[in-house]
Design a protein that fits this description.
Blueprint: H1 7-25, H2 34-44, E1 56-57, E2 61-62, H3 64-95, H4 106-123
Antiparallel strand pairs: 1-2
Helix pairs in contact: 1-2, 3-4
C-alpha cells in the first residue's frame, strides 16, 4: 500500500481522479491518453474495499450512480468559469488592442475584464452580440 486514506477522503479522491481524467480525455476523439484511463480504473477498483461498492461497476469503472451523482455539475461549473474568464479577457484585449495591456495599461485591462465578468455574472451571454468582421 502506498498510502492509507479514510473513506471520506477516498470519496474525494474519486472525484479528483474522475474529473481530472474528464478534463484530460473527454475532448479527445480516438486519441485518449490511456494512462489516465488506466489510473482511473485502478482507483475505482478500490471502491469495494472502501465501502463504496455502488460507485463502481464491472470491477473498476465509474458506475452510472457515480456519474449521475453530481460530478458533471461540478465539471460544468469549472467549464463555465473557464469559458467566461477566457471570453472576458479576449474581449477586453480586443477593446484595448492599441494599448500596452501587458505593461503600463495592465490595470486598465484588468478593470475591463472585471466589467465583462460582472456582466456575465448578471446576464450570462444574453447581451453579447456579434457583428460582422472586418474585411
Amino acid at each position: 500500500m502506498i498510502f492509507q486514506i479514510n473513506e471520506r477522503d477516498f470519496r474525494l479522491l474519486l472525484d479528483l481522479v474522475y474529473s481530472g481524467n474528464w478534463v484530460l480525455n473527454s475532448a479527445r476523439e480516438g486519441d485518449r491518453i490511456p494512462e489516465y484511463d488506466r489510473v482511473q480504473r485502478i482507483v475505482f477498483a478500490h471502491c469495494g474495499a472502501a465501502g463504496l461498492d455502488l460507485l463502481c461497476e464491472n470491477g473498476c469503472e465509474p458506475s452510472a450512480q457515480y456519474v449521475d451523482g453530481g460530478i458533471h455539475e461540478a465539471i460544468l461549473d469549472y467549464e463555465d468559469s473557464v469559458f467566461y474568464g477566457i471570453l472576458a479577457e479576449e474581449l477586453a484585449r480586443r477593446d484595448l488592442r492599441d494599448r500596452d495591456v501587458d505593461g503600463a495599461d495592465n490595470e486598465l485591462l484588468n478593470a475591463r475584464i472585471d466589467e465583462y465578468m460582472a456582466e456575465f455574472t448578471r446576464n450570462g451571454i444574453d447581451n453579447l452580440t456579434l457583428g460582422q468582421g472586418e474585411g
